[in-house]
Amino acid sequence: MSNSAVPGQLTRRSAVAAGLATLAAPAVLRAAPSTIRLGLIHPVSGALAFSGNQCRLGATIAIDDINGAGGVAAMGGAKIEPLLGDAQGRPEIAASLVDQMAEQGASAFVGCFASALGLAATQAAAKYNIPFSIDSGIVDSLTTRGLANVYRLFPNASSVTADSLLALDMINKKAGSPAKSCAIVHEDSAFGTQTAQQLAGLLPKIGIEVKALIPHATPTRDFTNIVLRIKQEKPDLVMISNYQNEYVALARTLVQQRVELVGTWSVAGGGFNLKFAKEQPGVAEGMLDFNHWYAPKNPKAVAFRKRVEEAGQTMTWEVLFGYFAVKLLGDAWQRAGSAGKEETIAALASSTFADHFMPYGPTKFTNGQNSGAHAVALQIQKGDMEVVWPEEFASAAAVFPRAKL
Amino acid sequence: MPGFEIVAASLAGGVLTGGVYALAALGLTLIYGVLHIVNFAHGALLMVAMYGAWFLATWLGVDPLVALPVVTPVMFVLGWGLYRWVIGPVSRGEDRAILLATLGVSVVLENLALVLFRGDTRSIETALSYQMLELGPLLLPLSKVISAGVAMVLAASLWAFIAMTSTGQAIRAVAREPTGARLVGIRPQRMFALAYGIGIASLGAAGCLLLPSFYVSPTVGENFVLVAFTIVVLGGMGSFPGALLGGVIVGVAESLGGLFLGESLGPISISLTFIAILLLRPQGLFGRPGEAGR
C-alpha cells in the first residue's frame, strides 16, 4: 500500500488543516445570521396530492415573504430554510419524516393537511418536544391529547359543525324557514360518518327533520341510485360530507335528475372550490358550503388571492392554511428572539398573532387550539365564491332558496 | 324498499354504465386475445386519452365527441409506437417481461401526468353534460346513451375486423400459432404492435366518451381498469361480445347491488356475480374451454 497522496485521499496534513478549520468555524458562523430549519410535511403525491401541494405552496410563499423582508429580525435576520417532506398520504411516512427532519435539525414543523397524517406526525414530534403548527387537519384530537408542542391556528371539527348549524339556522330563518327536512349524503370513512352523525343529532334541534342518512364508498363512480333515493324522499335540503370527486359527481347527478331542492349544504365540502365554480358553472351556482376562507373585505386578502392567481395557481383555503401556519411560527420566533424549542412553545402559548386576513377574532390558544377561529358559510354566485355568513365578514347575501336550475 | 320506477331507473343506469365499462374493456380483451398478456398500462393509457380530450376541450374548445376522430388515431399511433419501440424490444418476446414492461409504462405515464397536471382532478361541462333522454319516467344521461351506443358499434367493428379482414386473419394466426404464422410470411412483431395499437385506439374513443360524465386525474385509470379486468375475465378472455355483455352484467350488478345493499356494500355484488359465473363457466361467458388456464 502506497503512502503517496492521491486526490480525494486524506493525508496527515489535510487532516490537521481540516481540524483547524473546524475549530475556526463557530467564529465564522457567529458572524453570519443563522438559519432556522422548518420541516414542511405534506402528502404531495398520492390521492391527497392536490391539497397537500396547495398547503406546501402556501407555506413556501410565507417563507419567501419572511425571508424577503429580511428574515426574523429579533434573531439578527435569521432566514427560514424549508425541509420538504412527502408524506404520500401514509401516517407512518409522516411520522418517519419527523424523525429524519429532527435529525437534520428542524426547529419546528408545519403540516400535514390530513388529520390522520397530523396525528402521527405531531406525536412523533412530541418525542423531541419540537413545536408543530398544524395547517390543516380538522379532528379535535390533534390538540386534545395533551401534547404541549402542538398548536392549531384554525378551527377544529366540533366548532365547524356547531357553527355550520348556527349559520344554516340563521340563513333558513331569514328566508322564512323554507328548509324543514333534509337528506344527508356522506362518505363512509371516519370523516364523513362522524360529521353526518353529528349533523343528524343536531339538525332536529334547529327544526330540520333528517329523512335519510345515505353513506357511499370512495370512490363511487355513479350517483344515480343515491339521487333517485333522494328524489323519492323529497327533502328540502341535501347535506353533503364527502371528498372532491364524489362531491362533484353527486352535484352533477342532482342536476341531471332534476331534483327540486331549496338548497344544498355541505360541511367542509371536499369539492367546493373556485375550480369547481369555473369548471361546472351550471351545477355549482347557488351551492352552499360551510368551510374555511379569508375575510373577503380585507384588502390584504384580495391582494394575496390576486398574487396566487397571477402565479398561475388556484386559490384554495389550503394555501391560506399553509401560509398562516408558517406566519404564526415566524411571529413566535420574532417575539421569543430565538428558535429554541422551549422558547418557541412559550411564545406560541402566549400568542396574540393578528397579522392575518382570516375571519377570526384575536388569536388565543387554549391547550393548543385557537379559540377565536371560525369557518364561514360560502355560496357560489356568478362563478365566484362569496362569504354569506357571518354578516360582519359577508361579501354577499345568501341566495336561499337557490334559484331554479 | 325502492319503488318500481327507481328499480327500472337503476337497471337502465346499470346497462348504460356497463356500456362505458365495456369501452374500457374492449381494448384490454383484444390485447389479451392476441398477445396473451394482461396490459397493466391500460389504465394509464386511458388517462392519457382523457387528458388529450380534456386538453382539446379546454384549450381549443373542441367538444370531446368531435375530438374522438382525432384522439382515437393519435392513441393508435401512441400504442403502436409504445409496442414497437418500448414494450417489444424490452420484453424480447417473453410474456413475463411484457407484463413488467407494461407495468413500467404505466408507472412512467402516471408520474409524468402528476408532474404535468399535479394530483388535481379536472372535469368539463359540455353541451351534452345535462342533456337527458326522457324515456317515460326515466331520465337517462345522453352522454352515457351515446357511450353505450359507441361501445356496441366498436365491439361489432372490432369483431368484424378480426373475423373478416385479411389483416384480422393474420392477427388471429399470430395469436394462435406465431411460428406457423412466420412460416407463411407474417411478421408476428408487426401484428403484435398493430393489435396493441388498435387496443389503445379503442381507449382513445373511451377517453373522449367518458370525459363529459367523469373527471380526469393522473390516477383516474384505477377507477376503470380493475372493473375492465373483471369484465374481460367474465366475458371470456379475448372475446368482444363477451366484453360487451360482461360490461353490462357488471354495470347492472353494481347498480342494483348499490340500490338494494347500499352504496357502501353495493360493489360486493360485482365480485359475487363474478364468482357465480366463473363457477358455472370457468372459461367466461364467451371463452373457449381451456382458455382460462392458458
Describe the structure in your own words:
The complex is a heterodimer of chains A (405) and B (294). In chain A, helix 2 packs parallel to helix 12. In chain A, strands 7-6-8-9-10-13-14 form a 7-stranded mixed beta sheet, with helices on both faces. With 405 residues, chain A is α/β, with parallel strands linked by helices. The longest helix of chain A is centred in the N-terminal third of the chain and has 20 residues. Chain A folds into 2 domains: 197 residues, Response regulator (Rossmann fold, 3-Layer(aba) Sandwich); 147 residues, Rossmann fold (3-Layer(aba) Sandwich), CATH 3.40.50.2300. Chain B has a domain of 185 residues. In chain B, strand 1 and strand 2 form a beta hairpin. Chain B contains 11 helices and 2 strands; from the N terminus they run H-H-H-H-E-E-H-H-H-H-H-H-H. Chain B is globular and about 60 Å long. The mean pLDDT of chain B is 89. Helices cover 73% and strands 3% of the residues of chain B. By secondary structure, chain B is mainly alpha-helical. A two-stranded antiparallel ribbon of chain B has the order 1-2. At the A-B interface, helix 2, strand 7, helix 7, helix 8 and helix 10 of A face helix 1 and helix 10 of B.
